[in-house]
């Protein structure tokens, strides 16, 4: 659905939702301090 979601698993709820990609998100990585997320998409872009 072209979105990246961060979940609170204990609560079973989405805490953040990113909708910047125009095609499926294929990969996600978090910075060591968990303050940044980078995602890669089938639309051939990365988002920080």
Automatic annotation (TrEMBL):
Alphabetized InterPro entries for the sequence: RACK1-like, WD40/YVTN_repeat-like_dom_sf, WD40_repeat_dom_sf, WD40_rpt
Keywords, alphabetical: Kinase, Receptor, Transferase, WD repeat
One MF term in the entry's GO annotations: ribosome binding
WD repeats: 1-17, 18-48
Highest taxon in the source lineage: Eukaryota
PROSITE patterns referenced in this protein's UniProt entry, alphabetically: WD_REPEATS_2, WD_REPEATS_REGION
Protein family: Belongs to the WD repeat G protein beta family. Ribosomal protein RACK1 subfamily.
Protein name: Small ribosomal subunit protein RACK1
Lineage: Eukaryota, Metazoa, Ecdysozoa, Arthropoda, Hexapoda
